[in-house]
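**Sequence, C-alpha cells**
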Amino acid sequence: MTMLSAVVWSVAILFVIISAQATSGILNNGVKWGFGSRDSSKDETVFQARAKRTVANHMESMMMFVPLALVAHLAGVSTDLAIKGAMLYVAARAIYPLTYWTGLPYARTVVWFVGVAGTAMVFFQVISAV
C-alpha cells in the first residue's frame, strides 16, 4: 500500500458510509422524501443516527490522515512504519462503521484507537523526515 492508495481507500470508505447513511434516510422517510427538499422528516432511527455520527467521525479522521499522507508522499516518506501506519488506518476505518452500526461499544473504541495509532505512526515518520 502506498500513501496515495491509503487516501483513495479512505475516500472509498467515506463513499460507502455516506451511501449507507443516505439509504437509511430514504428507507425511513420514503423515496419521495429522498428526491424532495427534505424539509421535514420522521425521527431518525437508531441506525440513521449512528450512520450520521460515523460519517462525521470518518471525515474528522480524514482531516488528520489525508494531509499527513499527502505530505508523506510528497516528502518521499515511505518507511515500513509509515506504510504500516497507513494500512492500520485504512483497516481500522473500514471496520469502524461495522462496530458502530452494530452497537459494539468496546470494539468500536478499540478500532477507533487503532486508526488513531496508524495516523500517529504516519505523523511521527513525517515529522522525523521533514
Summary: The first helix runs from residue 3 to 29. The mean pLDDT is 93. The chain has one domain: 3-37+45-129. The two ends are 21 Å apart (CA to CA).
